[in-house]
């Protein structure tokens, strides 16, 4: 590898490190959003659990009625909402290990 190529790689490393810093800053902001979404998950889960407790406490003669079915549909809908929020929360996570690996590989070349 000649000097010109090493210089280009060195410039790439510098750019990659700057990008990594920006991504780390973005990751910190995403942490806050993840916490906010987790708060929503917790609230939905608490409401779902309360409704499930009401279903469980229904007298046997009401357990198979329309009211119980409506309540169970609400629990199912809340569970679906919780799953969607958890999925969104999990997508708000950025793994920078690949960037570190790329930078390390480039540094080995110069």
Write up this protein.
The chain has helices spanning 3-56, 66-91, 97-109. With 110 residues, it is mainly α. It has one domain (3-109). The longest helix is centred in the first third of the chain and has 54 residues, at 3-56. The termini are close together.
What's the helix and strand layout?
Elements: H1 3-56, H2 66-91, H3 97-109
Summarize the structure.
By secondary structure, this protein is mainly α. It has helices spanning about 5-55, 65-90, 95-110.
- Helix and strand sequence: HHH
The percentage helix is over 70%
Give the terminus-to-terminus CA distance.
Answer: 9 Å
Question: What is the gyration radius calculated from CA atoms?
Answer: 25 Å
Biggest β-sheet strands, sense, barrel: none
List the main descriptive attributes of the protein structure presented here.
110 residues; single chain; rod-shaped; mainly alpha
């Amino acid at each position: 590898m000649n000097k010109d190529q090493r210089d280009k790689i060195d410039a790439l490393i510098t750019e990659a490190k700057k990008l990594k810093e920006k991504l780390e800053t973005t990751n910190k902001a995403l942490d806050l959003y993840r916490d906010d979404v987790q708060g929503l998950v917790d609230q939905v889960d608490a409401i779902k659990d309360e409704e499930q407790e009401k279903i469980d406490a229904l007298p046997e003669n009401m357990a198979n009625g329309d009211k119980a079915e409506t309540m169970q549909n609400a629990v199912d809908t809340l569970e679906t909402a919780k799953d969607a929020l958890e999925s969104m929360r999990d997508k708000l996570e950025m793994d920078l290990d690949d960037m570190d690996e790329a930078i390390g590989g480039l540094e080995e070349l110069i």
